[in-house]
Amino acid sequence: MPRHIVCLSFDFDALSLPIARGTVTPTAMSRGEFGTVAAPRLVDLLGAHGIRGSWFVPGHTLETFPEICRAIHQAGHEIGHHGWRHIAPASLDRAGEEAELTRANEAIRKLTGRFARGYRSPAWDLSPHTVELLLAHGFDYDSSMMGHDYLPYFAREGDQYPADQPAVLGRPTNLLEMPISWSLDDYPHFEFQIFKRGVLPGLQTADGVLRNWSDDFDYLTEILDWGILTYTFHPFVIGRGHRMKMLDRLIRHLKARGAVFLTMEEAAVEARGRLEGRRAAAE
Ligand SMILES: [Zn+2]
C-alpha cells in the first residue's frame, strides 16, 4: 500500500532575521513582525484541516513572543531548533555554533519540557562541525540539506573536496537528514527584497507556485510507493491573503491525492525505521 507523507514546516523567524542581517530600521523590523500576525492564522488553518506541522523557531522568537509560541506548542505542533540569533552555522566558529545550539535548546525545553528532536539551520548553510554537534547534542534529524527530494538519508561526516581530485565522500552518521529545497520554500518565490548586491524579485503569482508544489507531490506518487515531501513556509511570507488561500488549496489538493500529514519528528522516526531495517537486512 503506497504511503506518501507530507510535512508542512514553518520557520518562524519574526524579528530575528532582520536583526541577523543588520537591517534594524523600523520598516525592516516590521516586515518580520508581520510573522506574529500570520502565525495564529496559520495555526487556525492547520487546525481546521486537522494537521500538525513542524515549527522551527529561533530562541529570539521564543523569548520575544512567548505567548504566540506557547499557542503553537499547545495546538500540538512540533517545535524544532532554528538557532537562537538566526545566524548561519557556516558563519560561526565551532564554539559559537555550539553556544547557539545550547542556548536555543534551553529556550525550547522551557516551552515544551524537552529539547528539540530536529534542527533546521538558519539560511540552510551548515558548517563542517554541524553534523557532529547535532549528534553530540542528541538531535534525531537535521533538515537543511538538499541531497534528495523525497527520501531521507543519513548525513555524512568527513567529506573532502580537493579542487583537482575526485571528491571523497565521508561516512554516513546516525543523524537523519530530512531534505528540503529552495523550490519548495515560499521565500524565494514570494518575498520581494532589495539587498546590497542585488534584488530578489519574488512576488510570483500564487497559482503558478501552487502548480509547482502540487506537481512535486504528484510526481512523488507516480515514481515511489513511499516518500516524504517537505514544504517550508515563513509566516511573514505565506501569511498574506492570496498566499494563505493558495496554501489552503494546496492542502486540499494534497488531501485529495492521499497525502499523509505528519510532523517532521514523526516522519523522521518512520524514515529511520525503514533505513535501519534495510541496513540490517543488508548485513
Ligand atoms: Zn529562518
Q: Would you mind describing this structure in some detail?
A:
The chain has 283 residues and is of the alpha/beta class. The protein has one domain (3-282): TIM Barrel. Helix content is 47%, strand content 17%. It has eleven helices and eleven strands. It has helices at 16-21, 26-49, 59-64, 66-74, 94-112, 130-136, 186-190, 206-223, 235-238, 241-256, 264-282; strands at residues 3-11, 54-57, 78-81, 118-119, 141-142, 153-157, 171-177, 193-195, 198-200, 226-233, 260-261. The strands form three sheets. Strands 1, 2, 3, 10 and 11 form a five-stranded parallel sheet that branches. Strands 4-5-7-6 form a four-stranded mixed sheet. Helix 8 runs parallel beside helix 10. The radius of gyration is 18 Å and the shape is globular. The relative contact order is 0.18. The mean pLDDT is 97. Bound molecules: zinc ion. The site of zinc ion has 5 residues, from loops.
One letter per element, helices H and strands E, the order comes to EHHEHHEHEHEEEHEEHEHHEH
Q: How many domain modules?
A: 1
Question: Briefly, what CATH class?
Answer: Alpha Beta
Average pLDDT, all residues? 97
Low-confidence blocks of residues: none
Shape: globular
Distance between the terminal alpha carbons, to the nearest Å? 26 Å
The main pleated sheet reads as: 5 strands, parallel
Which structural class is indicated by helix and strand composition? Answer: alpha/beta
Query: Can you identify the CATH superfamily?
Result: Glycoside hydrolase/deacetylase
Number of helices: 11
In terms of quaternary structure, the protein is single chain
* Small ligands present: zinc ion
Percent of sequence in beta strands: 15-25%
